[in-house]
Here is the input.
Amino acid sequence: MFQKSNRTLFIIIAVILVSRFISMILVPYGDTTEARYGEMARIMSETGDWITPFYDYGVPFWGKPPLSFWSQAIFFNIFGIHEFSARFPSWLASLGIIVILYKLTAIVYRPSIALISVLIFSSSFIVYLMSGAVLTDPYLALGTTLSLAAFTIILQGNTSYWRYLFFIGISLGMLAKGPVALILIGGPIGIWLLMSPRRWSSLSKLPWLSGTLLVAIIVLPWYIAAEMKTPGFLEYFILGEHYYRFVDPGWAGDLYGTAHKQTHGTIWLLWILAAFPWSIFAIYLLIKNLISSERYQSSIAVLKNETLSLLVIWAIFPMLFFTMAGNILITYTLPAIPPLSILLALKLAALKKPYHEGTQQIKLLITALFVPMLVLTMTMYVVNHPSSYPSEKELIHKYKTVSNNNTALVFITEASFSARFYSRSRIEILDPQNLKYFINKNKDKTLYYVATDNFYTKFTNHTKTKLIYESYDYVLFTIL
Here is the structure.
């Protein structure tokens, strides 16, 4: 039976997890990333093509493997085409990480610390955000967490099914984001092995031959089929996405947008936001240790402890790896949050005033609820001010209302992914150079146009129009 304090933690964790459903249901897909992946999953669901994700009809997407698109398309088929369907698999992936995290901490330490680690993990900014978003990163984090948790448990002498879960984690990572999973899993283990010659014997606990065969059986069929179906995929995906994107911050070869150029080392600043509010506690503990007279002895003790040293390396390796990369996103920090949660839980459990005592428990719970309350507040604002959010759901709704969905909707220059998703791609895209001809050709028809605010302002200087709706990025109008 849980102690009273443990029951309280369990209830708060459940509230945090379920509260994510609110924004998953109410907030529309935002441009560009979430709406783009949602539209790609919708196309997969519609076409039934389970090999190649499509960026647009007839345009293959070579940027990511299909694990996330598979799950989202499956849920579209089950629950229908709406926001919650494609977001729910990410929530399930995050729940899977939580189960692994709890199991790992309970085996290595004890269940009470496992609950604290789960509370920290589930209430971290990046985890709470990613657990209800249409993205690929929760699936990568699920794979890396499973492999590294399995390896840590194997070190404790538990070599049953965890030996093969290590390789299943690699497979998930390879199907979620590709070879970067091997780096995020092998990197921490490699550094940990180099710290002591005696640790190399731990590798013998893994079934390398049968495990590698298992990975090949799970992963290779899709990679081979994808290259055969759209030749050129492997060259772009392996070299482009895993080499040029890393070494060239302004990589011009990106087929699906622009590179996210950042100053080297920015990943550490992104980590502070990603792990917030717990990153503040982690920084405080680090500074406290650095100024402590016993800092040398405590550091040596951590390095000598096989489990603690592995957790520390696991917690900092993603940031170390991406420190020299200029093309980064905050989501790259997600695989580092599970081990950080365990390390902070250990520190909280070791406080002179136990966490389950009145004041300490209240502080813990207030900290854990900060991010969920912030996100819920933002959700209510977006619901009441849809034009403040970069999504065209309301614009498409306005168009369907005034037109009865019987006349064409024409996007001038380009259409956002959220517009494609909510219109089910039943739109026309018009080059501005052909606009005058198009208007004259359809002067007897009532058509509805969408353009950027700047274009619309210039256009109304010489053409009479009627403004119907103005969204975050676009203006819906008709020509009188």
About this structure: The CA atoms of residues 171 and 215 lie 5 Å apart. Residues 4-379 form one domain.
